[in-house]
Design brief:
about 120 residues; alpha+beta
């Protein structure tokens, strides 16, 4: 399974991107274009892993806390499903998965913090 950290776009941003994609399609000779359901901003690519549950469970608590502060309905606020996934996955990660995920998330949080300060 390919794992990555991404942000989903709001409806307004997604609509603007879809309009731009439609314009590009009209100018393209050929190519593949992302389906509307798959539009997102990838912040970091983790790679191939069969340990998705362990990695999800090892997400740094600061990121989860930040997501929980986002307004309800925001594309980045956690859903009941993601809350349940985090709780279930947190119950069984191994030490190696935790160390890798912690290192990755610390880097991600630093990058995300810089991104927010630019806005």
């Amino acid at each position: 399974m390919r794992l990555f950290v991404a942000i989903n776009f709001s409806k307004d941003v997604k609509n603007a991107l879809l309009a731009a994609i439609d314009e590009l399609k009209g100018q393209a000779v050929s190519g593949n274009f992302t389906s509307p359901d798959n539009l997102h901003l990838t912040l970091a690519f983790i790679g191939e892993s069969e340990r998705a549950s362990a990695i999800r469970g090892a997400i740094d608590p600061a990121l989860i806390a930040m997501m929980r502060k986002m307004p309800a309905g925001s594309p980045h606020s956690p859903s009941p499903e993601s809350e349940a996934r985090w709780a279930a996955a947190a119950s069984h990660p191994d030490a190696e998965d935790l160390a890798k995920a912690k290192s990755f998330m610390q880097g991600f949080l630093a990058m995300y913090d810089k991104f927010l300060k630019m806005m």
